[in-house]
Amino acid sequence: MTVAPYRPEPATSRRRGGVLRVLAPTDAAPLDPTCAPASAAPFVRLHTRQLVTWQTARDVHDWQAVTPVPDLALEVPSTWNAGLGASHRSYVFHMRPGVRWDTPDRRPVTAHDVVRGFKRMCNPVRPSPSLAYFAGTVRGLAEFAAAWSAEATHRAADAATLAVYQNAYEIPGVFALDDETLVIELARPALDFVQMLTLPAASAVPAEHEAFVPGSPEAAAHLRANGPYRVWLQRPGEWVELVRNPAWEPAADPYRRAEADRVELRLSDGAGRADAEPADAPAEVPVAPAVGGLPAAEPVDCALGWVLDPYLLLNLRDPVWADLRVRQAVALAVDKAAVAGLYRRHRPGVPVRVAGSLIPPGNAGHGTADPYPTLAHAGDSARARDLLASAGHADGPPLVLIHPQSGCGPEVAHACAADLTRAGLPTRAVGLADATYAQALRAPATAGGWQLAVAARVPDWLEHNGRVFAQAMLQANPVPGGANHGGYAAPEVDALIERALDAPEPWRADAAWRAAAERAVADVAVVPILHRAPVVAPRRPDRVDGIRPLPPQGYAADLTAARPEAGE
Question: Is the entire prediction scored with pTM above 0.85?
Answer without folding.
Answer: yes
